[in-house]
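Supplementary Note 2. Why include the ligand at all?

Several targets in our set were suspected to adopt different conformations when bound, so apo predictions alone were not considered sufficient. For every target with a known small-molecule partner we therefore ran a joint prediction. The input for shikimate-3-phosphate is given below.
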Amino acid sequence: MKQRSGKTVGAKGRHRVQSQLPREYRLSGIFLVGFMGAGKTSVGRALARHLNWAFEDLDERIERLERRTVPEIFRESGESEFRRAEHAAVRDVLTELQGGAVKIVALGGGAFVQESNAALLGASGVPTVFLDAPVEELWQRCLKQADEAGAERPLLRGIHQFRELYETRRKHYLQASHKIQTEGRAFEEIAAEIAATLGLKKIEIRTQQGEVE
Ligand code: S3P
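The joint prediction is reproduced in token form.
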């Protein structure tokens, strides 16, 4: 349905609002990439509020598809099975974007490191944004989340292993189309920088009653 603002709103409301991404991007999605503790979910939510886009955490899609939590998948079936499910979830979300969905997606810390996922995302022409921070800050954020929210991360073992994994992965994250420094910054400020970098402004959605959301 065409709205007065000129934006198309389908049955799923803002999920189908045209994204206004520059033409060089072929799909209306933004993928947030980075290590554990990078703030992908929190920044993703802030960016969704900032732009009036939908937000999705890929780990939640995996949990829905698998009917198990991420720690359960790791415990019961191992990391390779988790990576298989993660790849299927990346494919699924890209299919939705190809169908016209508009959303910000927070990837799990290992998703972009898998060549098969990075290749799919690269070929799809979506912006991928690496949220960068020093490894010590990432570690402290993960400890805080475990403490305050009971967040269980199967790959969070000790600082030594954490640092090693970060160092192996960083070169992969640097393949993302954009990099944003997050050290000591608020989620909203980071979200605003991503929007500005991609040349995006908040979309006004008109409800059927003509009210602006
Ligand atoms: C993982 C990170 C987790 C989750 C899974 C594997 C990783 O997501 O996908 O535990 O390989 O770094 P977060 O980055 O949101 O913690």
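The pocket of shikimate-3-phosphate is lined by residues 36, 40, 59, 70, 108-110, 153-155 (CB under 6 Å). The beta strands are 29-33, 54-57, 103-106, 128-132, 178-181. Comparable summaries for the other entries are listed in the accompanying table.
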